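cron nightly-structures :: item 1 of 1
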Amino acid sequence: MKKLNIAIVGLGNIGSYLYKYLNDNKKILTEKNNCMPHVRYVSVKNKKKRRIVKINKDQWLDNYLDATKLKDVDLIVELIGGSEGPAKKLVFNALKNKKHVVTANKALIAKYGDKLSKIAELKKVNLEFEAAVCGGVPIIRSLKEGLIANKISKIYGIFNGTSNYILSSMDKQNKSFDDVLFDAKNLGYAEANPSADLNGEDVSSKLKILSSLCFNSFLNDNIYVEGIKGIDKTDIDNANRLGYKIKLLGYSELLKNKFYQRVHPTLIKKDSYVASIDGVLNAVIVDGKPVGKITIQGEGAGPAATTSALISDISSILRGNVKFPFSLSNMERKKIKFEDIQDRLFSAYLRFEVSDEPGVLSDITNIISKNKVSIKRLLQNPNKNKKISSIIIITHNSKNKFLDRILKAVTKKNYIKKKPKLIRIDDN
């Protein structure tokens, strides 16, 4: 029976879960793949840390880079994280030394995926990263294999469980942003420093990878990114009144022969499928021909979901499937210009907290009209403080640059009491 020797570098919650799963399920994995996965080595920063698994003495590697040189290592699973430092050194060295690599590191792939792909292709080894995007949702393999016959025009969805938990909990539990974030940290849904989740950076990294696979292109940094920090309970309540839910969505799309990548909070119809995805779940929607529109949903993070994705990649290598990391040879991948979204058309939710005085509403509507934007719906709500009024405007489709100009112009007015809000609307 053939055997594949594995080195796991990084033994936190995910690494420990993977180690245990590989050992507990060695027999069935061997039968299914006609090759035995064998964890030969592990390497960690702190060997003394208490873990859920017991490591044999002959499995420890004091220097993680030794895994890239040893003859009895065929595959390295990188679970360090981060786009620089040890993770970068490990993966680059592993591929150069003809070791297969499986990783859950979205930041590394998003930043260095093109360079790593070239090395993997040259050395004829695998670079697999199913676990880097949406955890247990098998979107990478679906794009590389299951949907290979399709011309994809759009991929979008909920790609971050932390932000989705916060927005859905604010809605259902009647809590503020800060209170829900506190709960998310206590439940382990948010890191001590959750900035990458809250500012859209996490979704941006995942979207870069998905765009490359969908459009057979090299990774592209031209992404409009906006996070959820500006969303408060009032926006959530207003969205409900208007028949919407607020979700942080990532979009990559081909529209009228132009490519766009964008990440931002979005108002979506209450009765849409994506609106029903709550908690830490992820959902990915792909629109292609001939398949049409399909949706894949599941847990986007956590040891179990991530291990499922890692095992999928390991199994592919066990079967001897040497594939291009981004589905095509680097010679066949294209450089695509992703457009700035300023000329992209959006319907939008605008919210202005203003002094409750004559002429304010008229001035705002005049500014909107001057910027070539038409009003679809207008609501005016008195605040508990009778001196302040909340003006909610839903616009017809307008160029993003005109919507931005409106916000800049109104922000300068003396009657503005809080920073104006703009949330784009998806009525599809």
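cron nightly-structures :: done
The two ends are 52 Å apart (CA to CA).
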